[in-house]
Amino acid sequence: MKRRSFCRSLALVLFVVTSARTRAQAGQPLRVAWASIERAGSKSPYLEAFRGGMRELGYAEGRNLVVDTWWADGIAEKLTQQIDAIVRSKPDVIVAQGGLALGPLLAAHVDIPIVYGVSVEPVEAGIARSYARPGGNATGMSFFALDLVPKRMQIMKEALPATKRIAVIADPQHPGQHKEFAAAQAAASSLGLQVQYFPIHDDAQFESALADIARDHFEAILAFADGFTQSYANRIAAFSLRERIPAVDGWSPFAKAGNLMTYGPVIEDCYRRLAVYVDKIRKGARPADLPIELPTKVELVINLKTAKAIGVVIPQSLLVRADEVIR
Description:
The protein is of the alpha/beta class.
C-alpha cells in the first residue's frame, strides 16, 4: 500500500511539473499563488522582494506572470479553508510565506510544486529528507542559520559590555530550537555570559516569562528568530522600555518594532531568491531535486532611539558597522 501511495504521489508531482513545462512552452503566463497568514492588503516587503526577483529574471506581471495573493488575515485556520480555492485556481507554483503558511499546504497533501521561506530546521521539522535532496514537492529557503548565533552574541556583548545574565526566550515547539539554544549556551560560555531559557508558546507563558525576567533582574533578552516569537516583538519592546532591559533578535522587524538590535539574515533577500526556484520549476525542474538554501546576506540593525530611551550607549565601533541605524 505504501509503495502504491508513493508511486501515485510521484506521478501526480510529475504531472504537475510536466504541465508547468507544457504551459511554458505554449507561451502561457506563469501563474504563482502567494500564500501568507498576513492580513489582506498588507504591503508585505517579502512579497515585493519576490516580485522584484521575478522581474530580475525577465518576468512581468500582465505579460508573462500572474501572481495571485491569498491572505489569511492573521488566522492560520483561514488559510486551511482557502486551500481548495488555491488548487482550483491552477497555479504552476505556490509560494508559502513562512511555516504557518507551509504547514496547512503540506497537511492537505497539495500536489502543486511549493516553494517556501521558513525559519525552521527543515529536516527536523519533517518537511525535507535532506538539504541536498528535499524530496516531495516542496523546497526553498531556510532562515535557520546556527553559525550566526555566536556572532549575534558577540555583537550583543560588544553593545552591552557590562551584561552578564541573559534571558533567552523562544518557542519550544519550533523545530531546531534546542540546537539554537545549545549554540547560544556554547557562545555564552566562551564570552563569560550566563543564559537562562524561558519557553513561550502562548500568552500565559509569555507574560509569566517577562514577569520572571523583571523579578530576577536579567540584564538583557535574546529572542530566537521565528514567526511566533516575532509576533510578540511590539510587546517585548514595550516591556524593554518599561524595565530598561535591552532585547536582541535575529530579524530586522524586531528592531524596527522598537527593540534594541538585530543581527541575522536579510529576509527580503531570501524571498527574492525564491524567484530562482520558481523559474527553475517553470523550466522543468522538480522541487525534490532543488537543494534547500541558507541565507547568504546578513544585516546588523540598531535602534538608537531605543538605546537612548533605556540608557544604553552603543559603541561607535558598532554603529559604523551597522547596515541600518534607526534614529
